[in-house]
C-alpha cells in the first residue's frame, strides 16, 4: 500500500530538527544561517519573503544541492546551517529531510512563512536572488 502524505510528514518530523519562528526571529540575519524559501515564485510575488532569504524552488532542490549536478548552486556548498521554509511548514519539512539526507546541516521553520508574518517579523518584497 502506498504511503500517504501524512505518513511522510510524520516520518520526516521524527527525523528532522525544526526551529520555531520565535527561535529564528533574532537569528535570521546570522551569517552562519541561510534561510531557504522553497515556495512557488507566485507565492513570493504575492506575499514577499524573509529578508535575505535564498529562493530555491522545491522541485529543483535535489539538483541544486548535489555538487555533481549540472544545476548545482554553490550556495548549497557553504558550511552553514540551512533553515528551509514554505507557507505552513509541510513542504519545508519534506525538503529539510531531503537536504539532511544529502548531507546538509538543515532545519525546518516549523510555522513557515505564515507564522513569520503572524509574528510581525520583517518581510521583503522580492527574492534576494539565486546565488
How would you describe this protein?
- The chain is of the alpha/beta class.
- It has one domain: Oxidized Rhodanese, domain 1 (3-Layer(aba) Sandwich).
- The protein has 6 helices and 5 strands; from the N terminus they run αβαβαβαβαβα.
- A 5-stranded parallel β-sheet has the order 1-5-4-2-3.
- Helix 1 packs across helix 5.
- The longest helix has 12 residues.
- It is globular, with a radius of gyration of 14 Å.
- The termini are far apart.
Distinctive features:
single chain; 131 residues; alpha/beta; Oxidized Rhodanese, domain 1; five-stranded parallel beta sheet; 6 helices; 5 strands; Rhodanese-like_dom_sf; Rhodanese-like_dom; Rhodanese; transferase; thiosulfate-cyanide sulfurtransferase activity
Helix-strand blueprint:
Blueprint: H1 5-15, E1 18-19, H2 21-24, E2 33-37, H3 41-47, E3 54-55, H4 61-65, E4 81-85, H5 90-101, E5 105-109, H6 112-118
Parallel strand pairs: 1-5, 2-3, 2-4, 4-5
Helix pairs in contact: 1-5
Number of DSSP strand runs: 5
- N- and C-termini, Cα separation: 41 Å
Question: CATH topology, anyone?
Answer: Oxidized Rhodanese, domain 1
CATH class, anyone? Alpha Beta
Spatial order of strands in the largest sheet? 1-5-4-2-3
- Integer count of domains: 1
Instruction: Work out the helicity level.
Output: 25-40%
Given as residue ranges, the uncertain stretches (5+ residues, pLDDT < 50) are none
